[in-house]
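Example for tutorial group B:
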């Protein structure tokens, strides 16, 4: 089914404003060339009569070209590019595109803004259980989190700070969970999300990840007031909120994707003897919901798995949920899974995706970074870091990527070299050569495994969802934004989608994600191809028509 274009007013271009002149300039150029690569668009723009007649505009295009060249060789940070007027104009172009975008991966708790959360938190902190809520907030966010006196205080707590990684990210999602304890709260949250995303980033369809069952044995994740909230409250509340927004915007679409935490401790130990028993009961509850509310059959059609996955890769890890997923699949559900996002070793990251495909028979992989890392670069860079440490006599700390990967190599009876490296003992040239050989053969084996899994994904027409900001900020899988594998996946022929993950928490939005993808492959990724992925519209001639319609609306 193709997404219908939304009726748009003419694009006004005040004559004296550089940003609007750039937007006008880009809209004309992109529409006249059917969405070439960013580099080709820049080249044509620098030679256009419009640029020659407007020295300020020409200077802006030249300045952005210089920044983009520096960005390619890591001399300029992404934020510098995004702040440039040319990038802002390109963002305005994407925001004005007639078709809405599809955010294929967004979580409820990371997409609620401070203006939504603050008044609801105030009611809790001024209520009879104030001490309990303050204690929970301090436990997660520290003593400096309180007092909460304004929206800015909330915003500070729900944003990921520079240097924070995956484990901390999971913790700071706690604050929104405190207010999501009723059907009404979920209804309001859904409406808030849909209206905000559409207004800010032209998002007209979303795939919402949310936790349907939040009982856990982990004290740090337990939520006061949750005992009266039922799965029915959660699903119906979200559905009602989205439907309320759809009454205002009839083209809006949503999919509800209940997400199960993978970790062994995430189940209600007070009521069930094991995680599997609780999971099976949850599956029965989802199916019962559909029986009681047939109107949910459209949006409630898939499930997902989320959570920390570093230790979740063996076949045995997948067995607890296998039969429950089989029951859902028999009722027409799709299975999606967060895998290949984080790992102890790259080989385990690929293995996790492989087992999700073979045992759970998933329809889509969310993140999937382990399938996009170049093993030869990854392991050689790792070897360089280890040898740099060895040259200074430093040991390799346990529970680091360097230590885990070092002990995952096949040393071919030269484990003594591994042990000296780990302990910080100087190694000889002969030992360094043995390390190089072990690294070389391991990289080739992982690369072969990686390509086998990718080729099976292509054969099975599985989807892979890219989340550029999330992948860069939450993992240490690649050093720069340019290393994100989206363009490589696209060239290889994978079915791709784009998501924001947790746009508020990660300080991003859908337009920013599109710009990141475009900037990191300016020479190969065509604007039209990016629009195909982002909108789901595959008819190129229709996209060209819509681009030309944008040109007509300029005045």
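The residue assignment follows.
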């Amino acid at each position: 089914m193709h997404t219908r274009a939304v009726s748009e007013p003419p694009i006004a271009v005040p004559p004296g404003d550089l940003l609007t002149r750039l937007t006008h300039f880009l809209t004309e150029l992109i529409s006249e060339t059917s969405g070439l690569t960013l580099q080709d668009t820049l080249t044509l723009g620098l030679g256009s009569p419009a640029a020659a007649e407007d020295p300020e505009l020409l200077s802006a295009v030249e300045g952005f070209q210089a920044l983009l060249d520096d960005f390619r060789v890591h001399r300029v940070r992404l934020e510098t590019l995004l702040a440039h007027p040319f990038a802002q104009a390109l963002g305005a172009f994407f925001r004005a595109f007639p078709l809405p975008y599809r955010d294929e991966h967004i979580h409820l708790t990371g997409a609620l803004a401070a203006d939504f959360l603050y008044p609801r938190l105030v009611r809790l902190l001024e209520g009879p259980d104030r001490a309990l809520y303050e204690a929970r907030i301090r436990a997660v966010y520290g003593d400096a989190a309180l007092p909460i006196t304004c929206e800015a205080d909330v915003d500070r707590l729900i944003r990921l700070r520079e240097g924070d990684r995956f484990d901390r990210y999971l913790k700071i999602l706690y604050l929104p969970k405190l207010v999501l304890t009723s059907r009404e709260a979920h209804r309001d949250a859904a409406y808030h999300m849909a209206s905000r995303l559409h207004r800010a980033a032209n998002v007209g369809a979303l795939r919402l990840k949310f936790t349907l069952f939040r009982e856990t044995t982990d004290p740090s994740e337990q939520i006061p007031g949750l005992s009266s909230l039922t799965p029915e409250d959660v699903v119906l509340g979200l559905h009602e909120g989205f439907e309320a927004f759809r009454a205002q915007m009839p083209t809006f679409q949503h999919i509800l994707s209940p997400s199960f935490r993978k970790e062994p401790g995430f189940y209600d130990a007070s009521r069930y003897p094991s995680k599997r028993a609780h999971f099976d009961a949850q599956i029965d509850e989802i199916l019962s919901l559909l029986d009681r509310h047939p109107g949910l059959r459209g949006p409630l059609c898939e499930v997902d798995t989320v959570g920390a996955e570093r230790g979740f890769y063996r076949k045995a890890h997948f067995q607890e949920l296998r039969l429950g997923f089989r029951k859902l699949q028999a009722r027409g559900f799709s299975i999606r899974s967060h895998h290949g996002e984080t790992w102890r070793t790259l080989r385990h990251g690929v293995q996790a995706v492989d087992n999700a495909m073979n045992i759970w028979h998933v329809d889509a992989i969310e993140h999937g970074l382990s399938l996009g890392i170049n093993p030869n670069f990854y392991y050689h860079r790792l070897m360089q870091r280890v040898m740099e440490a060895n040259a200074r006599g430093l040991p390799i700390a346990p529970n680091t990527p360097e230590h885990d990967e070092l002990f995952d190599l096949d040393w071919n009876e030269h484990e003594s070299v591994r042990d000296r490296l780990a302990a910080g003992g100087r190694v000889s040239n002969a030992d360094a050569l043995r390390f190089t050989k072990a690294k070389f053969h391991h990289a080739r084996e992982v690369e072969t495994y990686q390509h086998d899994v990718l080729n099976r994904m292509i054969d099975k027409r599985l989807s892979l969802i890219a989340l550029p900001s999330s992948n860069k900020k939450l993992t240490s899988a690649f050093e720069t934004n340019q290393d994100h594998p989206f363009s490589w996946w696209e060239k290889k022929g994978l079915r791709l989608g784009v998501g924001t993950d947790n746009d508020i928490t990660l300080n991003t939005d859908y337009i920013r994600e599109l710009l990141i993808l475009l900037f990191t492959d300016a020479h190969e990724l065509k604007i039209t191809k990016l629009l195909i992925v982002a909108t789901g519209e595959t008819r190129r001639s229709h996209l060209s028509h819509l681009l030309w319609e944008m040109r007509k609306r300029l005045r």
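The first strand starts at residue 101 and ends at 107. Compare this with the pattern of hydrophobic and polar residues in the output above.
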